[in-house]
Each structure stands twice: as C-alpha cells, then as structure tokens.
Automatic annotation (TrEMBL):
This is Membrane protein insertion efficiency factor. InterPro entries: Membr_insert_effic_factor_YidD. It holds the Pfam family YidD. It comes from Sulfuricurvum kujiense (strain ATCC BAA-921 / DSM 16994 / JCM 11577 / YK-1). It comes from the Bacteria.
C-alpha cells in the first residue's frame, strides 16, 4: 500500500515538474527513474536510502554518468517469466545485482 503511494507520487513528479527540467540530470538513469526502479524492486527502507544518497550525489561536486540501481535479489513475479514481458535485466554484481531496463519492454508504464 505504501509502495503504491510512492510509485504514484513519483509518477506525478515525472509527469509534471520533471517535464520542466527535462535533460538536466547528470546521471543515467535520471534520479526520478532511479527512484522508480528502486521502489519497484527493493524494500522500502533500502529504496529510500538509495534514492536519498543518489539525490545527494546529483550536483556539480560529483561526476555524472551511468549509475544503475543495485538490488539485493531479483524479485521475479510469475507474470515476468515470458520473454516478451521482461521489464528489467538483472546483472550479477558481487553479491547483489545491477538493475538494467529492457528498452524493448512494451508493458504498461507506471
């Protein structure tokens, strides 16, 4: 329930305020997309913490670049098992996983 609230709040931000500052993010994925991925795939405390530190790094004192979210373990839903509906790729990184978006995904967007 709380997760859905934050996902809807991120959707509202991305479709209103974020349109004004389009292209100004120093990272890929953008901070709002990073937060969206975190809240979809991580626990709430870890999503908050990761998003908070990402926003702190989004300034001129830190270099920009590619900064994929890191998750503890992939939580795969049964509806994501079909090859045509894969939304994210999970790439092993030490004992965690990088979360990388599949750009050919055609499902509903939050």
């Amino acid at each position: 329930m709380i997760r859905i609230f934050f996902l809807k709040l991120l959707w509202l931000y991305r479709h209103s305020f974020s349109l004004v500052t389009r292209g100004s993010c120093r990272h890929y994925p953008s901070c709002s997309e990073y937060a969206l991925w975190q809240f979809e795939r991580n626990t709430l405390p870890r999503a908050f913490t990761s998003t908070f530190f990402r926003i702190l790094r989004c300034n001129q004192l830190f270099p920009g670049g590619i900064d994929y979210p890191i998750i503890n373990k992939p939580m795969i839903k049964p509806s994501e098992l079909s090859i045509n509906t894969i939304k994210y790729w999970f790439v092993p990184y030490k004992q965690n996983y990088f979360l990388i978006k599949n750009f050919k995904f055609k499902g509903s967007q939050c």
